[in-house]
Amino acid sequence: MAESWEKFLEDMADSYGLDELEREAFIEMFAQKGKIRSIVKLASNLNLGESAVKTRLGKVYEKFQIDSQKKGKGKLLQ
Length: 78
Prior knowledge:
The chain has 78 residues and is mainly alpha-helical. The protein contains 5 helices and no strands. The radius of gyration is 11 Å and the shape is globular. The two termini are 16 Å apart.
């Protein structure tokens, strides 16, 4: 991952007050610039169950003030 992209993601996580678990999921979700990783891929990469990833991302969406019931949430974060 390009250092400037990683720094951008870290800065965004900080500015929205993401805790360590939320931050980990957020950064992993967007690790490849321009691509969004699936819940299945995130769960595998983070060694978590899919429900744990969904819970973490739900908190991220809440902090970014994105309706977690809306389709295409990841695109809104991107």
